[in-house]
Structure formats: C-alpha cells, structure tokens
Amino acid sequence: MDIYNKTADILLVEDNPGDVELTLEAFEKAQFAHRIHVAGDGEEALDFLFRRPPFQDKPRPDIVLLDLNLPKVGGREVLEILKTDPKLKAIPTVVLTSSSAESDVLSSYNLYANCYVVKPVMAEEYTNVVLQVEKFWTDVASRPPIG
Prior knowledge:
It is a single chain. This protein is an alpha/beta fold and 147 residues long. It has a single domain (9-138), classed as Rossmann fold. It is built from five helices and five strands. The chain has helices at residues 17-29, 42-49, 75-84, 102-110, 123-140; strands at residues 9-13, 35-39, 63-66, 93-97, 115-118. The protein is globular. It starts with 8 loop residues before the first strand and ends in a 7-residue tail after the last helix.
C-alpha cells in the first residue's frame, strides 16, 4: 500500500455486537472511505491475518483495532502472534478495550501494541475515541507498506 494513499483496510477484532455497531456507525457518520473488516473472536482474527480460508482473498489489514477480552483466542495471544510474525509485526495494532488495569496496559505494550485505548462507556464518547484513533492512524501517522 502506498503510504500516501489514505484509504486503509482496518481489521476490527471485537466480540461485542454493540461496540462493532458503534464503530461502524462512527466510520459511516464521518464518511471515511476505509474498508472495515470485522472478526468476532481471536481465532477468526488470526485466520484473517494469515489469510486462511475463508479469508484467503482478503487484503492484509493496514491497521488492527484489537479488543483484549475475546472468545476462542484471547486478544493478548492474538497480539503476541501478530507482533512476532515477520510478515505481520509492522501492522499498527491499537488495543481498544474496556480494561484500564495497569497490568493490561503494561502487558499490551510489552507485546508491542502500538497504542492502548480504553473504551469509554458512553456511546458518543466511544464514537469520538474511535474517530480520533482512525484519524491519527490514517491521516497523521505514516503506515508501513504491508505485503
């Protein structure tokens, strides 16, 4: 991907349907042209990232928004696998979770998360946070080319 191309493929790894809906609504409201792919658990996220069926034809994400508390394979394990794989480790990964525990923040950064954001409780605040994260990672930060 050309780093000057502002369109991004974003993988949202989230098991809470309400948070998925809020995120998708935020992107729609802001009229972002980004493509959002949703994985409802850690296993599905890994299948998407490694392009295993049924995701073999999907693009590698330019950004991952990752919840920590996921069924099947937890977010920490997804983060560890993602950041230790030579082909995937450069993908900017934002932990977007409800936990504000210092141990979760520290463990996420120790696993090389690029950012840790605590989800606000109120829907409007949640939308604003998602939009700020998106704007930073797609309009401000230079993203590495992902192959």
